Amino acid sequence: MAKLELINLNKTYDPKTIPVKDLSLTVADNEFLTLVGPSGCGKSTILRLISGLEQPTRGEVRIGDQPVTNVGAGDRNIAMVFQSYALYPHMNVFDNMASSLKLRKINTSEIKQRVEDTAKLLGLEKLLDRKPGKLSGGQRQRVALGRALVRNPDVFLLDEPLSNLDALLREQVRADLKQIFAKQNAPVVYVTHDQVEAMTLSSRVAVLNDGILQQLDAPPNIYAHPANRFVAGFIGSPQMNLFTLNCEGDRALLGDVKIPLPGGFAPPPEIDLGIRPEHVSIASSSDHAAESTGETNNSVKVQGRIFLVENLGMSNLLSVNVQGANNSEHIIRALLPVEQTWDGEEITLSLAIDKLHWFHAQTGEAIGSV
Ligand SMILES: Nc1ncnc2c1ncn2[C@@H]1O[C@H](COP(=O)(O)OP(=O)(O)O)[C@@H](O)[C@H]1O
Ligand SMILES: [Mg+2]
């Protein structure tokens, strides 16, 4: 099977709309790569460039070391699954799944075999005679997937295929997708705006914003080491706490609290600090001795006032006001196990120093290693 390569790919619609800027990446033949980013960042455009439905302004698409940029969409052996499913309403499930094989003049007995095998994989074997109008959303989605799988394509492209499913079904199908594609030997490029889908399904995730690749890495690395402030804020739910602080020497100032900056760079006048809500805790009473300095060896203590508690089932999300510079206020959100209790609204938060993320206030690029 063949890898997929995008080399300096660019697409410009007009000088103001450049949905793909200098994109280079390789998807291995057994890899599940997800493109994730906010709506309008260029994800679908990238899939259309790979499939041949659109031509790049510059750059190249290669499948298995062969340039395909000048090969028409019909002659690239690529299967695409859309959010809308795009099933033929007048055909039953069997014929929907068989349609591309018939076009390729594959013999009838092989078509039957391939459709039946794929239907079994997807739990559709009892529905082969039904028309799409008599199927649930989840079943239609499986038929659309089946139509792609049955082809044995060189590349799979999936554009937000779960977006039309309700939350419970989405979770179920997400798990099925992971198992089904683990058995395929073709590159998969999966598009979603949902970071949970991206993190759970993929071997690697490409985070995009404004047509530009922000970071490409395995999900745990993206989560632990976001390359910039955009990725830090986009990946992770509840979202990372992020704020801009003034610096004084080798400390950043959060109100009266001085937080040590990472070493190895000249402290700027301002810096952005990030910490995920699950790395913020309530300081225990034995920590109170450290409150006067605001800092112990491995954590920073910050006084605050709780103004909102959201129960998420297995955890509570606390929103806490803390004092910033010049009478300003910051909101820090803390994710606590639901069993944890606290006394009153005035609390001391503990921020784990080794879990702090630092970003250039101007460029947003990550500073130091966390
Ligand atoms: N055919 C087109 N002509 C002009 N602009 C387009 C066209 N298709 C998409 N765009 C624009 O390109 C940008 C990226 O679109 P798209 O790739 O669909 O984003 P996504 O799939 O990430 O939501 C958007 O600003 C969109 O409005
Ligand atoms: Mg899209």
Q: Which ligands are bound? A: adenosine-5'-diphosphate, magnesium ion
Tell me the total number of β-strands. 21
Q: Percent of residues in helical segments?
A: 10-25%
| Poorly predicted ranges | none
The CATH homology group name of the largest domain = P-loop containing nucleotide triphosphate hydrolases
Mean pLDDT: 92
- Tell me the β content: 25-35%
What's the architecture of the largest domain in CATH terms? 3-Layer(aba) Sandwich
Cα shape:
elongated
Question: Helical stretch count?
Answer: 8
Radius of gyration: 25 Å
Summary tags:
about 35% strand, 8 helices, OB fold (Dihydrolipoamide Acetyltransferase, E2P), binds magnesium ion, alpha+beta, 2 domains, binds adenosine-5'-diphosphate, six-stranded antiparallel β-sheet, Rossmann fold, six-stranded mixed β-sheet, about 375 residues
Account of the 3D structure:
It contains 8 helices and 21 strands. With 370 residues, the protein is an alpha+beta fold. The protein folds into 2 domains: 4-234, 3-Layer(aba) Sandwich (Rossmann fold); 241-367, OB fold (Dihydrolipoamide Acetyltransferase, E2P). It has a 6-stranded mixed sheet with strand order 6-7-8-3-9-10, sandwiched between helices. Strands 13-12-11-14-20-21 form a 6-stranded antiparallel sheet. A 5-stranded antiparallel sheet has the order 15-19-16-17-18, with no helix packed on it. α2 packs parallel to α4 (137-149). The two termini are 38 Å apart. The protein binds adenosine-5'-diphosphate and magnesium ion.
